[in-house]
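User: Predict the structure for this protein chain, please.
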Amino acid sequence: MKKVLAIVGPTAVGKTALSIRLAKKFNGEIISGDSMQVYRGLDIGTAKVTKAEAEGIPHHLIDICDIKDSYSAAEFQKMGRAAIDAITARGKLPIVVGGTGLYIQALLYDFSLGGRQENQERGLREKYEAYGAAHGNQGLWELLAKRDPAAAAKIHFNNQRKVVRALEVLEQTGRSITAPEVTPAKLYDYFLVGLNTDRELLYRRIDERVELMLAAGLADEARLLQQAEETQAAKGIGYREFFPYFKGESDLAAVKEQIQQDSRRYAKRQLTWFRNRMTPRWLDLVQDPESAAELEKEINDWLGV
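Assistant: Here is the predicted structure, written as structure tokens:
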């Protein structure tokens, strides 16, 4: 298995600085695992690494999309794996850095993702919803009972959403929705580092970061999306909160407060994801910067250097 170092965690905990330090120490190149850093022109709100911060370390999957483009976990999975292969072939260590949990997990494990699958799911859903409209909830449930008695026994006939989902799963995978899911296979020998700090301190750092972003011109970046509110990029935290302000429905103080609140909530969701779905080696570099030296020893052992 190829070796991959991954650094995850919420915003404002030091992921960028640590990734540069480790890339210099272990001859690495960095792959951004952030769903917003792919967009050209959105630099401040996505906290992209600056040229000075990068210190010459190559970075991948940054500035690869226009702001009106869509970008999915499936595309990241494909491009991220290609980047891992190329970096490894150069004799360097791939270092994945980001806070988008689904992206990191989809990259490191054998998750089945793809636009074709998403389109197929949508088509199946529409097919069974149409069947339900024509035959009623009872008729739709009876179809499930015929095909998957175990699922039908657990789902009320009036719960059309669950009945449709059970039929979708059966047709797509050949298994009952009641059957346990197969755990995806691990694709890499990875070392996962998770950064965090005290909750109150984290929230204070997030609030301060938002202040700095606003002072650096975040509003100008948000204006790039003013005529493209329906795009994926426009739904990002730090941008969507400006639209009421641009329409004269809010003031800048309210925008700042909303961005801070949304950022704190997102940080909480990020931490919940990584705690529940993955097992990082947690560190608090904000309050204990010296722990980075111990981490380097552990990575050294993992690499067998």
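The chain has a mean pLDDT of 92.
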